[in-house]
Write a structure and sequence with these properties.
The structure is a single chain. By secondary structure, the protein is mainly α. The protein has five helices and no strands. The longest helix is centred in the last third of the chain and has 28 residues.
Amino acid sequence: MPRAGSFTDHASAAREALGAYLLAVVAVTEDSRGERALADELSDAAPTDLAYRIAGSLAVDAPQQQALLELETTSARRQAETRILSRETELLRDLLVRLRERGERQELN
């Protein structure tokens, strides 16, 4: 059984990864309405609720999303989600750099 501190640390890491991901989504799409609402809604969510909500909101293919939802523990789910969020954030940042190079997006302040 994980220590309470590590349980909280995993939730914090997942929240941070989600925040970075949502910022990247906003930068690429230039539409922050849904992302802000999701971030606000999840800011105080219980760790288990957070894990399920992140899994349900990730823009991944259905089998990958289902695999996340079927993981046996909340901790395993959040760890997998944090890895996915980090990977997707990097991909979105790379896309944003390419869009800016083509003059299709402004720099963030």
